[in-house]
From TrEMBL:
Name of protein: Phenylalanine-4-hydroxylase
Positions contributing to Fe cation binding: H112, H117, E160
Residue intervals of the Biopterin-dependent aromatic amino acid hydroxylase family profile domain: 1-245
Keyword field: Iron, Metal-binding, Monooxygenase, Oxidoreductase
Pfam family, one: Biopterin_H
Membership in a protein family: Belongs to the biopterin-dependent aromatic amino acid hydroxylase family.
Organism of this sequence: Hymenobacter nivis
Cofactor: Fe(2+)
InterPro entries: ArAA_hydroxylase, ArAA_hydroxylase_Fe/CU_BS, ArAA_hydroxylase_sf, Aro-AA_hydroxylase_C_sf, Aromatic-AA_hydroxylase_C
Length: 245
């Protein structure tokens, strides 16, 4: 329970990592991130000066979006992760990356989750998309590993590394991009493929968790995000268990 959560005592070094990352990402994301991201950072009161109090932040996220934040000490498996999404809960790592992983953290950390994911929860299209994924995962046959892997691929290439066309140009909305300078530079490099988003292609694309992605998929319109989850759920979920809130 979040009400029983005792926040870690973050060291001056941890606070410095947060501050420098916050400054650098804010500068890099100017005119590169979807407008909803910057607006939510301001709305939530995220600041460079200090790591946010998770209890206070969760209450504000809940007030604004209906979602709750769940502190975790290590990365969750896909089953546990999707179960939280189905309940409109989002896990937040309490560990912040060390200086050696400054440019690219091989696994989610506090900055990735709080700076990258949490602001996007305030966008209704994005939040509904995550909830639909969670409901779809809950309705899958328990032993259908292929379907679960394809659902994870859809999450990965959207919520983690997704782009969307805004005013005719690709803008970032995936947390793996929003929170990583190295990933941003790789993504915007002219040599990096950025194909149009297609559910059938994405569901069969391999996930690369420990290095930069080979390609980044670009949604044609923000409003189509939730439709992507519903489309894949319609293929993967057995008919008697179709996704319902």
């Amino acid at each position: 329970m979040l009400t029983q959560f005792r926040a870690p005592c973050y060291s001056p070094q941890d606070q410095l990592v947060w501050k420098v990352l916050f400054d650098r990402q804010t500068a890099l994301l100017h005119r590169r991130a979807v407008p909803a991201f910057g607006a939510a950072v301001v709305q939530l009161g995220l600041r460079r000066e200090a790591i946010p109090d998770l209890l206070t932040l969760s209450a504000e996220v809940s007030r604004l979006s209906g979602w709750q934040l769940v502190p975790v000490g290590q990365a969750l498996g896909t089953e546990a992760f999707f179960k939280l999404l189905a309940k409109r809960q989002f896990p937040v790592m309490t560990r912040i990356r060390p200086m050696r992983d400054f440019d690219f953290s091989p696994e989610p950390d506090l900055f990735h989750d709080l700076f990258g994911h949490v602001p996007m929860l305030l966008d209704a299209h994005f939040a509904d998309f995550l909830h639909t994924l969670g409901l779809a995962a809950r309705a899958l046959c328990p032993d259908d590993a292929v379907a679960r892997r394809e659902l994870w691929a859809l999450y990965f290439f959207t919520a983690e590394f997704g782009l969307v066309l805004h005013e005719g140009k690709p803008h970032l909305y995936g947390a793996g991009l929003l929170s990583s300078a190295g990933e941003i530079h790789h993504c915007v490099n002219e040599a990096t493929p950025r194909p149009a988003f297609d559910v059938e292609t994405v569901r069969r694309t391999s996930v690369l968790g420990t290095r930069f992605q080979d390609q980044y998929f670009v949604l044609p319109a923000w409003e189509e995000l939730a439709d992507c989850a519903a489309e894949l759920a319609g293929v993967l979920v057995p008919v008697p268990h179709r996704v319902a809130a």
